[in-house]
Amino acid sequence: MSTHQDMSLVTATPPINVDQTFPEIEMSGDSSSSSSIVRATVVQACTIFYDTPATLDKAERLLAEAADNGSQLVVFPEAFIGGYPRGSSFELAIGARTAKGRDDFRKYLASAIDVPGPEVERLGEMARKYKVFLVMGVIEREGYTLYCSVLFFDSQGQFLGKHRKLMPTALERCIWGFGDGSTIPVFDTPIGKIGAAICWENRMPSLRTAMYAKGIEIYCAPTADARETWLASMTHIALEGGCFVLSSNQFCRRKDYPPPPEYTFSGSEESLTPDSVVCAGGSSIISPLGIVLAGPNYEGEALISADLDLGDIARAKFDFDVVGHYSRPEVFSLNIREHPRKAVSFTSEATKDETVKK
After folding, report:
1. Which domain of life is it from (predicted)?
2. Longest alpha-carbon distance in the chain
3. How far are the Cα atoms of 23, 114, 169, 264 from residue 221, in angstroms, in the given order?
């Protein structure tokens, strides 16, 4: 398995000095009315599969490099901690499973992290150490169910919360659980209002509308989709929401995964060499005006950075405010159920007594 490689640093060239390092920003009021500049980085790099401690070490090296470049916000790809099981079928068929497939799941479960847990604490320590806002894609473990999640940390290292992927795609649904309305946060931070949607749930209009209604300004889109069509989706979201879109994907070669027979790319293993690209990245940063500020990068592992002029949010909303002056609430409405959906709830006698008193 390959280890950390030196990152290539790809920085946008908007009409400001891209060599300038910006201190941590203190704002008051609505950041969208400000003309502040925020330097953001999307990380394009591969998990060290089945080795979560080594992946955390790699994440810290990348975070340190981004911070050295003056980044205040760093976004990692979908499932960076825990790994995206690209190509694996877990030997699933309708009505049948295998001993190896069950053991593949056991190893994948072991690579996931508890939230909260020691890995979350370490990520918080990294954010504090390097004084950055951190958005990290993880595989979250709750009992024996896995979730594809995004964790948010502020620049003091505080864990702000998480988003669980609402709708896993295709075979992902056999491996990951489903998020609910209780984890669709948008966090109001000194560098802007930050939230995230993961991979193809970005195609869900209702989810996007919920985030727009919460005032999202920096829309993070960790993904596993490396196709060239992905950029069109990201550009549309930036224009539709009047927000910055930061899309981060892994860049992986076959050798970044364990070799066969331990790990097999179903249907394509025989055609792959160790250097075959199995995920080509395509990470990018888009402005609220639909301008591609950085990327897409299909060349290799990289740190892709841009300077975000938060004043562009107001400039874009002047044209189109999807949940404001361009909405038609007398025609369309959307109801979001934000309470957690639990399979089992327990009611004690004390709880019953309190309910009766009320």
Report:
1. Eukaryota
2. 69
3. 25, 22, 15, 28
Range of the domain at 303: 37-318
Flag whether 265 is in a domain.
yes
Q: Which residues contact 102 (CB under 8 A, 6 or more apart)?
A: none
- Count of the separate structural domains present in the chain: 1
pTM of the model: 0.86
The average confidence (pLDDT) of the chain is 89
Strands (E), 241-348: 244-249, 251-253, 277-280, 283-286, 292-297, 302-309
Which residues have a catalytic role annotated?
78
CATH number of the domain to which 270 belongs:
3.60.110.10
269, part of any domain: yes
Which pLDDT score, from 0 to 100, does residue 7 have?
52
**pLDDT bracket for residue 342 (50, 70, 90):** confident
Token pair of 88 as six digits: 């694996």
Examine residue 338 and state whether it is found in any structural domain, yes or no. Answer: no
